[in-house]
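Progress note, sequence design subtask.
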């Protein structure tokens, strides 16, 4: 349910919460990560101390999926955001703060690589003027045309809040986005008792938790869970070969067999169906620029 680095909050089938830690030195085979256990993992554990309510984790069960990003501090390692998801919801704002299309595209590629369906929720629509609302509609149209569900919300005005609630129903959902996009406000609007802002300090350690590091799972109602992640500044792709990246762009995936060369990287090769589609406005230029930034390994959070 929650991780703070060395301690993990575990919930058993009866809903009882234990404070668990890993048994000895624990490494995941073939996966270099800074956090071997992610929120959402299913684990095997034994009660260590009933009075102190502690437990020892001995194993992690196979994951259905997970979302991982490149570690900010150890670039050869990944940081697991969450595991065993039904869906992801990316919260974005076009003002205060502005979420770049490059960041949106990187998140979508990460989710696509594990076939995790994603909805993009554009929050703070109440602060946009007519021109801003028109731009938001254009961006939503761009992503809806390639198959992504989009939603416009305002936590403060109650716009789209009921649709947001229905989106989460009977699913395990990862909530992600930059700091300041209003994740906590939107969740508090549908479940005020959570009061997420008060949950940012550890309840089982004697010191404060670095609020940009740890995720936490909440039960909104029976069979409905959200995993609230701290604000993500960067999203470096992990374990994704250049040749694979175009497969995670739905509008490119549909055209891959149309390129002259089967190993086309859609960069400067002749007879490229992807570049042709961009020139004919069938693929958005912003999406193509995001793709280039990923194969070149550069940041395009413009």
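Output:
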């Amino acid at each position: 349910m929650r991780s703070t680095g060395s301690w993990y909050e575990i919930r058993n089938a009866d809903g009882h919460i234990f404070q668990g830690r890993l048994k000895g030195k624990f490494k995941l085979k073939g996966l270099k990560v800074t956090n071997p256990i992610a929120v959402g993992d299913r684990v095997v554990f034994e009660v260590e101390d009933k009075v102190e309510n502690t437990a020892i984790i001995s194993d992690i069960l196979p994951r259905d999926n997970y979302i991982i990003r490149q570690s900010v501090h150890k670039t050869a390692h990944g940081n697991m955001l969450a595991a065993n998801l039904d869906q992801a919801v990316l919260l974005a704002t076009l003002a205060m703060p502005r979420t770049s299309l490059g960041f949106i595209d990187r998140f979508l590629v990460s989710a696509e690589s594990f076939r995790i369906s994603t909805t993009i929720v554009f929050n703070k629509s109440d602060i946009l003027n007519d021109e801003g609302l028109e731009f938001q509609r254009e961006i939503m149209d761009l992503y809806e045309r390639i198959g992504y569900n989009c939603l416009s919300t305002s936590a403060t005005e109650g716009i789209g809040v009921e649709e947001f609630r229905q989106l989460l129903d009977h699913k395990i959902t990862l909530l992600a986005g930059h700091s300041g996009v209003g994740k906590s406000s939107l969740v508090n609007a549908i479940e005020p008792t959570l009061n997420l802002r008060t949950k940012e300090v550890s309840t089982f350690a004697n010191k404060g938790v670095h609020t940009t590091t740890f995720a936490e799972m909440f039960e909104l109602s029976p069979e409905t869970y959200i995993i609230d992640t701290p604000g993500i500044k960067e999203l470096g792709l992990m374990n994704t070969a250049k040749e694979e990246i175009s497969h995670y762009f739905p509008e490119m995936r549909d055209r891959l067999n149309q390129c002259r060369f089967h190993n086309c990287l859609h960069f400067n090769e002749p007879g490229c169906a992807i570049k042709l589609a961009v020139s004919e406005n069938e693929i958005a230029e912003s999406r193509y620029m995001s793709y280039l930034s990923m194969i070149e390994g550069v940041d395009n959070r413009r």
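The chain has a mean pLDDT of 86. Work on this subtask will continue into the next period as scheduled.
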